[in-house]
Amino acid sequence: MNDQDVPPKPAAPPTSGLPRVPAPAAQPVLHPQMQPQDEAPSRPSRLNRRALWIAVFVAVLLAVIGALVWLALWLNSNPGADDSGSETSGVLETTATTPATPLPLPREGVQPPDYALGDCFKDFDPEALASTVVPCDTGHSAQLVALYRYPEDAAYPGADALKAKALEACQAARLGPAANLVQLNYQRSFPSSTSWESGDRRVDCYVTAPGGNVINASVLP
User: Fold this and answer.
1) What pLDDT is recorded for position 1?
2) Any idea where the domains of the chain sit in the sequence?
């Protein structure tokens, strides 16, 4: 076989015998900023969302107003709720007068209601019905360094409240340099329900020396 045996390529595709297909209709050209009408946002749906948010806001606002009204009514119906601080009208004493107990000293048989802030005690026993008050520059084992007086018309608050108030008195006590010379402990004393009925309205805070009458100066400033 030689090159002349290959038929030449046609100059154009044959058209005879082929079906004619009509050309598609021209589509309208949209401007870049134009959107088809069926894709436009729905105005009614936007209005529904706005109405929903308004309804939520109103519901929250009404709930807050209702809570405030309830709180005001509750406070007005419990006028005594803020009266728990009536004991704060009491008096805390941490500064002693000089002399605390009238001279001459030592003075034996002094009873607890007559103890004065700054008094120094020999052989002190906090449960004793009487003690011996001595000059603070002589050997003693305890000193009254702080006290709290409840109002005369106060109701008995209970032992736990009295203990807590005595602890506050000890924490408020101001001690001087002499308190660093010996080992000292805090000791609290408060009225029983029986002594409260008898008019005892005072809780006391003492510093005591576990070693006995080894304190030879006032521990107050």
Assistant:
1) 41
2) 93-208
